[in-house]
Amino acid sequence: MDCIGLCKLIFDAGVRNQELARFIGSLIGVLLVSGVPLLTVIVLIWVERKVAARIQDRIAPNRVGPFGLLQTFADLAKLLIKEDITPTAADRILYNAAPIVSFASVVAIWAVIPFMFANNPEGAIVGVDLDIGVLYFVAVASLGTLAIMTAGWASNNKYALLGAFRVVALLVSYEIPLVFALIIPVMFAGSMSLVDIVEAQSHMWFIFMAPVAALLFFTSSQAETGRAPFDLIEAESELVAGFNIEYSGMKFGMFFAAEFLHVFTNGILMAILFMGGYLGLFYQAIPPLGFLWLGLKGAVVYFVFLWLRNTVPRLRIDQVMGFNWFFLVPVSIINVILTSLILKLMQVSGFAPTNFATSNLGEMLPLTIVMLLKDVVIIAFILGRLGQEGRRARIEEQRANEALTAAAVGD
Amino acid sequence: MGDASLSLILAFIIFTILTLGGALGVVMNRNLFRGTIWLMVSLFGAAGHFVLLSAPFLAAVQVLVYIGAIAILFTFAVMLTRSLTQISDRFTRLWWNVGGAGILFVVLVGTVILPVWGGFTPSNDILFANVADTTQLGIALVDRGSETTQGFVLPFELASLLLTAAMIGAIVIARDADDDEKGKRS
Predict the structure, then answer these.
(1) Chain A nearest CA to B115, separation (Å)
(2) Which one in A14, A186, B112, B114 has a CA-CA gap of 20 to 30 Å to A148?
(3) A127: in domain
(4) Which domains are present in chain B?
């Protein structure tokens, strides 16, 4: 193994042991990569409260610091000095481990996120350019499910356990359309590495080629974070507070920070998988600009997440399950089959490039148009079916009403 | 990688402790829920070993399928059967089983592990030479053409047949009787 980059810098600075230099280099890298999300989450809490308040016609915190910017720090101090309660009947070790696992599972996703372009073997500034980046993301995100279940069980509280049950039903089922949506960018890029996926979008963003997949990813990641309309895990009116009912102080804060961060991380992932990640104007000439592009794209998606969260009401558990199994899963499977078929046919017949990163806009255009048409057909078909079903439901309701009126008049 | 570097040895030791310690935790814990958590620790250690064997794909699948899906199903089943989470019976007279397990352990160590044990030096045999992109991954998994890859088409198909049979069986057991069937019975 050779010593390059950060490792070389440390080696030259006086640490005359390659092994040690590599270790220090990795350590600094880990601190930097995990530091970005940790710092982001402080701002995110403020953004979330401000946006939610504006949507609900309120003002949001505005007393502590300019625009209430320091409110988060005040809350943080409050959470830290609060009494830390562990229920007597709780499973002490698991109870204390759950918030850490929950937060760590989100931070770990950032290890594979490419931040900006760089002229190194990986081609980007990235924690680690795994060949299996997408799979890694799915695997790590599934640990979050585990953390919530452990929290629900270890609290030894019926409401918490009920919340944990719902987690299994919700998160595990919504992982299916999520993964099916992830297959589309992987198929386009021919690689599971997030850097390769970004590079494959140099000429055409995948959101134009696969809007249905992007929508599927968006919807199922909203469900994965457990937010409205899918916030059954912590439905206050039904479960008091769900899985985190027994938690207090900073442990409770960690669950919340994990949720906020998860939403933003999903925004960033959406930007990387479908909107070209760090690609943008001058991203090669001025690499830090790529970081800005990524942040901007992620922030736009994040805002839509918040918008949706604060606009729509909560669904019932059977509606959520029905929506997933009878709508999202069939659509995602059909989408994968059609996309792979069309992609292969066009590549074999020479209308589409096999390597997106090295082609150009002209070569990408036919494929994009065909893919877009396919998605329009899928969406039109779905809308048609939905309209049909809605009409049928309305007619049935009308008939029932007429029968009722007739019965009432008859009396 | 010629000589074993210190960090590799350290990683190997840590993952081995996780795997074996987790396995011990599974069999020695009296609480079923904690047992499943220990099982996840053990599986995580195994995933780490896959990384050391330069098979990151298998490591991710290990975490995704075994920890993310199967172990979560375990915990779910355990939570539903709450009366089983605290086993108070003690099984202390299983000396025959202990003896049998001990002999099996010695045989396994003597015949399987010792012959291939080469110190802490990482082996040069790489499971999949290269899985940089999905094409290579697919070739490594199912291609039978080249000498370097054996191809796993048959095991793959057999496993999927088994899973299909299991799923059909689960549906048959779980579903309610149809109206026709109910009519026949009554």
Answers:
(1) 29
(2) A186
(3) yes
(4) 6-128 (1.20.120.1200)
CA distance B88 to chain A (A): 17
Q: Please name the helix (run of DSSP H) or strand (run of DSSP E) that holds residue A273, with its range, or none.
A: helix A249-274
Q: What are the strands, taking DSSP E only, across A95-234?
A: 114-117, 124-126
* Residue B152 and residue B142 in contact, taking contact as beta carbons nearer than 8 Å: yes
What token pair was written down for A112?
């594979």
Instruction: Count Cβ atoms within 10 A of the Cβ of residue A139 and give its class: 0-12 exposed, 13-18 middle, 19 or more buried.
Output: buried
Q: Which residue of B has its CA nearest to A131?
A: B132
Q: Is residue A1 part of a domain?
A: no
Q: B57 — contact with chain A (CB < 8 Å)?
A: yes
- B133 vs A161, A168, A190: nearest CB: A190
- CA-to-CA dists, residue A134 to A140, A228, A230, A252, B73, angstroms: 10, 25, 24, 29, 23
Amino acid at A96: N
The candidate with the shortest Cα–Cα distance to A206, out of A267, A292, A277, is: A277
* Residue B56 forms contact with A (CB below 8 Å): yes
Residue A231 lies in a domain: yes
Q: What is the pTM of this model?
A: 0.82
| Chain A CB within 8 Å of residue B152 CB | no
- Contact between A140 and B133 using a beta-carbon 8 Å cutoff: no
Q: How remote is the C-alpha of B7 from its chain's centroid? A: 25
Per-residue pLDDT tens over the stretch A251-307: 888 888 888 889 999 999 999 999 888 888 787 778 788 888 888 899 999 999 989
A132–B134 C-beta distance less than 8 A:
no
Report d(CA A383, CA B39) in Å as an integer: 46
Residue B181 C-alpha, separation from nearest chain A C-alpha, in angstroms: 26
Specify if A128 maps to a domain.
Answer: yes
- Which ranges in A56-83 belong to alpha helices (H)? 71-81
Total domain count for chain A?
1
ipTM above 0.90, yes or no: no
